[in-house]
Amino acid sequence: MSSHPPLGGCDPMSSSSTACCGVGRGKFLLAALTWAASVLSSARACTIRLGGALAATGRYESYGEQVKNGWTLWAERLNEQGGLNLPSGRCVVAMPLDLRDDKSSSELSSEILEAMLNVSSPDFAAVDFVIGPASSGITLGNSMVAQRHQRILFSTGASETLYNGGNEYIFSSLTPGNRYMSSGLQLLRSRGAATVVFAHEAKAFSASVCRGANATAHALGMRVAGYYEYEPGKTNFADLVYQIKALDADVYVGCGHLNDVTYLIGNANVLNVNPFALLVTHASDQRIVQNVGIPNSHGLLSPTQWDKSLEVQDDDGFFGSAQDFFDLYQARFGAPPAYQAAYSAAMGYSLQKAIESAGSLDTEAVKMALWNLSLTSFYGLLEYSAPGDASGLIGTQPHRPMVTTQILNGSVGVVAPVEVATMNLDYPMPTWAEKALLLYPCPQGTVEDGFAPDGSSSALHVMQADIATASHCRARLVVRGDSQITLALLCARSARRRHGQRTSRHHVLASSAPLAPCAPERYQHAAALSTGPLLPAGNELPTPCANGTKRSETGGSAPQDCAPCEPEAEAGQLECSMCPRGSFTSNIGTSACTSCEDAGPLGSTTEDIASSDASDCQCPGETYMPVADKSCQPCPEGMSCAFGSKEQSIGEVGKAWPVARRGFMTRTSAPLLVFKCLLEEHCPGGSCQDGACSVQTCAAHRDTNAVACGRCVAGAYQSGSECLLCEVGLDSLPLVFVIVSVLVLLSAVTLAINRDMIHQTRWAVGVMVSLACLFAAIQTTSVYLALNMKWMEPLASLMKALSILTFDLSHVKKECSMSIDPVSQQLARQLIPPIFLTYIALVLVVKRRFAPVTHLAPEFLNTAGTILMNFFVSICISVFDPLVCYAHPGVRGYTSMRSDPSVLCFNSREHTAMLVIGIAACVLTPLPFLSTAIFAVWKYPRYVAMHDIAFMKAFRFLFFRFEPSAYFFGVALLLRNLLICLVPVMIRNDAAAQILAAAALMIVWIVSQCLLRPWRNSAANTLDGAMSGCILLVLVCGAVGGAYTASEITTQATSVFVLVAFLSMWFVLIAWNLFKQLSKSDVYDMLICHNKAGGAAQAKLIKLLVAEQGGQRVFLDSDELQQLDNLLDTVKAKVRNLVVYLTHETLTRPWCAGEVVTAMKTGKRITVVLTPSFMAPTSEQLEMVDAYLEVGGADLLVQYGIAVGDVRDSYAQLVAAQGCVHIRVERDPTNTRHFQHLVDRLIQKQTKSAAVPDAASPGCLVISADPCDAEAAAAACILISRAKPSVASFLKEGVSFLSDHMDMGIVGHCLAITVARALVVILSTDTLSSRHQLEIIAHVKGLNEKDHGPVAIPVNVDFSPPSTHYYSRVLPQIWPEVSEAQVRRIGVFFRTASCPYSTRASDQVLRAQIHAIVRRIPLNWTSASGIGAGIYEDDLTHIEFEDNDGEEEEEE
Asked: E-strand spans in 852-970?
């Protein structure tokens, strides 16, 4: 912060403070009064407060500085002129402007502005107007903040998204991004530029500029060769530049920021990419010259909002002219202004005029004044679009033209529009090699002197000389140290040829006399840029007495309790000892005890020693005596038996009997029939103390008559593990709330998921896909409830909460609202999906009433599918519930349903009814849905090929979330969910086996998901993998917490399965590779190596003809481009003859290089077909073969053991016909005979060609293609061959290809069309420039207008409809005699829906596309429907065509 001196100009901290503060009292008083008066005067004036969040650091630092300086210059100039004179007083701008550094961060910027505008924030700044940040993306967030606080924001962003959202509080003096490149492209088009490629940063502004430029290029009739998007912050453009180089476009258009242009130029220089023009954003001032140097910036074109050379000025002379503003800015800040400074100052000037017009600082008044503003300024016309503007934008200048600049020799000048140009366009711009030879001017009066011998920079020298130059040359003086001064004449460059061949400039040196040195100033060339995770203590037995002693009568256990024996007693005898446990004696003085085994029940014992009666012999603990068996039996499983437990004692007071342990229960009717409770808390069990037992079989409010305490008593509801009493009138509310909420949610989902996919952004799709992943994970986790596992907290509560997704209504106190039995509850659960579907249908019917465009069937299928897809696990669990059982103890084998333990599985009428309901529900809901999904996946390729949008809308729930290549993944997800649901059904009681099975399924799923990455959103793939891992981890946590032990058979089975699976996979892999190595069944007679871009259809047709006529198996390398090692293995072991079909750039493809090298080294027969478009690589290109190959090609080949030298040698042999056979095709094959002749030469035998049908045969099918396009002709021939079986049944007249009858001329072709049944027009890349096809189209549409002629069927091979510019400008040049009626007919035809037909597609897709074309051919036809339509003179132009059936040269 800057410090200010104290009032009166005294600074007590300065060295002169004493003298300053020592003035007399009179003078001080006078100064104080003067200051007070000024303060009071200022208090009556108003202050305009401007501020905002603006980058002072980070990526947009330079832009932020320009914006700040522009606003500062305007504010200072306004204040210097006294501010604004308003009715309330004079207003000045508060200085400095309150601009806070947002560090080029969108989040931070919005936070800063929110704090500045929020009155409750400690950073509240009370700004009247907001200065926007230096980026379209950051501005979007700030504009929302400003709109919320109703503050006008002056925007620095040009993206249309800022102005088309209805925000009335944003203004900008910028022309929107979609018009940035218009004037530049128009100028380049007028100079002959025909092709263009676009690349833009994935940012709102950059995308806006390139999208608008793309539309402009199409409107101008330019061919867009490529369109790329790259991630923000990219610094290495080598990959992108290399792709652009291969396109060989005239113009490269780059839409990014200053750093992008800098890095791009460096990569383009290093990779020697030389378009005729580089049109990029942010290269219209000296900053780019400083970044890359004069040589590298030479020739750059860039749009700009403003330039100092524009002849515009303020109405009131506030700034003056554009040049005046330039001078003012440079004087104030010491550097020339960029256009960002100009438009910022212009917005300040607009604000100034709007405040004057409004007469106040009121936001609404100033906003209206800005909309009504119209004034001329140094920046040009300032008019801001208001709501309702034809452009659809608010607050910007959509109708303001942009200017285009070019940098020549370090100077920036305007070249377009032509009417404001300050210099002529330099087109084509020099190549990088030519730029290196150019001599660029030093600052005026200086030249570069190089470097001193010690390496330091030496001075430049002043040159004073008059140099005469030729009319086409520019003179430059060159000095090298003290050597002789020479004169370098730079000659004008000559025209450059296409396909990368350019004529270099000549650098001519002529001697000259020495001249005087220059002043010592330095000019420096820029350097080249580089591309740069006890035992319980029992009763003690008496200790034996020592010899000569005996026990006393009172007994005892210690040695001191022994007394000396009487004389007559034998020493050591234990007299009067007590009987041990398990024995008794009822007689005094006896010498032995009676064993319980002899006198009591079998297996009985005594509870203690010294028993005196046989009744003391009872069954020991954990055994009991049944009524029917007088022996002790083990206590029933799940029960506890105290000492002396008897079955007959059950219920008797003071007696012991078997009681249920905790977690088990018995019923009064069968006290020894034990049932295991689902949760221990449900069954507290009984207890026995002092031989008396009490029984509490169920927890509070649980039905003691229900099996396993499985339900609450009437008037109570389930809450967690407890049963609580219902509260009258209140506990029905949760169920009502859930029902209403579900219906509302269903309505919202029905309306939301049927929105047009075009309106859904990538981020919206990502959110929906992520939610789908989350819901699928939750559903899968809910299956764990059915496993025979006990979950610890908090997992137990989480699992119980998830049960509501399986239509378990226990959470909503259903027992308090209705009293339903288990069967009725099961029926209600199965009716939920049909009720949902019925409600969805009703919502759609209502929607259709208000929106007639609603398509009931597709939208119902999509909505129903979405609901069933997301709830498939819940539906399956609900259906399988009667089969998910757990076992009770005992030999009877009773089992209970886990969802309702009170129902015994397969042993009760309730369960039988529930089982029937479940089977019926399974047949009615999940099975039909799964079958429908499988059918849709099976038919997906066909319907996609047919462009059946109704099918895609109906099944978007199944396909929209996944990548097109993983369209089957929806069914895979359903099958996984089904298998997960079947785990507790197939494995019931063995928890360990259930865990192993579920874990194995999840592992297989995770591996599959990671390999396929099927989700359409990349983040969703990561999320799905992470969630699947978490699901598996939850299962592991449950297994660890439960300490489950696998049974021996489970352990053995699992071990055997894993071992067998491992060995089987190993054996299958080895066997498969051996089979492939030794098998001859998949050997190909021929492999056609070709380039898909220029020979896909031709190669496919050759394959078809060779198979039909030669009986040979043919392999196309394009079928295996994703796996280069598979392709090379095919060449090595499965191919007899390699056919290299050479078209343009075939040899630049790495797979072609790999095939040729492999074939050469393995001695394969090689046949080379040289088409006219092929240009053999030069010796220089062969020397630099790594550069000749497409980007990354050499690196790819090295990975497969193919060196660059191997490619060079093989290509040299291939071109020189060493070890291979050449078949030269002098003309592109354009009809059936051409291809037939070529195939005959390939298979080396003469085949009898089929008779060519008469082109004028009435009722035949006629096919028309561009007679000069080999790819279009091949596509037509494939169509004829593949369609013949389909049309044979109804098309007896045959199929005629017009290119086979070029001798008939256009008149004969039109006659043939007149009597045809149908006309198939192959629309290819060059259709728009083919007069022959245009005349055919005009003729057939003329016939159709009069209800005559054939059915016209447009077939799109590789065709893009033309713009309106084509019909008015391009078409008349191709067909000068064309009439307006013919132009109209051609336009109608091009707008007709065409059938897709891609020869690059798979055979399955191609068959579906041909089937769709055949379906448009009329089945019934009579001669009257074709003959008699007539040929009209305005439809025909007599043209003679040359015969293209010349014979090719023989093999070399």
From this structure: 885-887, 895-897
Q: How far apart are CA 1312 and CA 142, in angstroms?
A: 66
1262 DSSP β-pair partners: 1296, 1319
Distance CA 926, CA 1003 (A): 25
Task: Provide the token pair at 278.
Answer: 């580089």
Label residue 1049 by pLDDT band (50, 70, 90).
Answer: low
Q: Hunting for tokens 């992520």 — which residue is that?
A: 770
The alpha carbon torsion through 721, 723, 727, 729 (nearest 10 deg) reads 80
Yes or no: say if 1190 and 246 are a contact pair by the CB < 8 Å rule.
yes
φ, ψ (nearest 5 deg) of residue 1323: -90, 115
Q: What is the pLDDT of residues 854-894, one digit of tens each?
A: 788 888 888 888 888 888 888 888 888 899 888 888 767 88
Count of CA atoms in the C-beta half-sphere (13 A) of 988: 16
- Supply the pLDDT for residue 1364: 87
User: pLDDT (tens digit, 9 = 90+) per residue, 108-164?
Assistant: 999 999 999 988 788 888 899 999 998 888 998 999 999 989 999 999 988 888 888
| Terminal C-alpha separation, the chain | 85
**Any bridge partners for residue 1015, and if so which?**
962
pLDDT tens digits, residue range 1279-1295? 998 888 888 888 888 88
Is 1071 in contact with 820 (CB distance < 8 Å)? Answer: no
Please choose, from the candidates 232, 179, 216, 296, the residue with its C-alpha nearest in 3D space to the C-alpha of residue 58.
Answer: 232
CA 1139 to CA 1168: how far, in whole Å? 6
Please report the pLDDT score of residue 1436 as a whole number: 38
Q: Please compute the mean of the pLDDT values over residues 1385-1412 and round it to a whole number.
A: 87
Cite the DSSP H helix spans in 1043-1164: 1048-1078, 1092-1105, 1124-1133, 1150-1161
pLDDT surpasses 70 at 378: yes
- Token pair for 1021: 């793939």
Cβ contact 918:823 at 8 Å: no
User: How far apart (Å, rounded) are the C-alpha atoms in residues 1109 and 1248?
Assistant: 9
The answer, yes or no, to whether residue 459 has pLDDT greater than 70, is no
Strands 639-640 and 659-660: antiparallel
Is residue 507 classed exposed, middle or buried when 0-12, 13-18 and 19+ CB atoms within 10 A define those classes?
A: middle
Closest residue by Cα to residue 330 from 299, 290, 285: 285
Long-range Cβ contacts of 92-96 (<8 Å, 24+ apart): 92/45, 92/47, 92/48, 93/47, 93/48, 93/50, 94/47, 94/48, 94/49, 94/50, 96/72
Q: What SS3 string covers 452-518? A: CCCCCECCCECCCCCCCCCCCCEEEEECCCCCCCEEEEECCCCCCCCCCCCCCCCEEEEECCCCCCC
Residue 225 parent element (H or E): strand 223-230
Nearest by Cα to 408 from 447, 368, 438: 438
CA contacts within 13 A on the Cβ side of 504: 10
- Euclidean distance between CA atoms 429 and 298, whole angstroms: 8
- Residue 733's pLDDT band, with cuts at 50, 70 and 90, is low
Q: Which residue has the tokens 């050591």?
A: 572
Question: What 3-state DSSP class applies to 1322?
Answer: strand
How many other C-beta atoms can be found within 10 angstroms of the C-beta atom of residue 36?
11
Model-wide pTM > 0.85? no
Residue predicted with more confidence, 335 or 767: 335
DSSP secondary structure letter of residue 724 = E
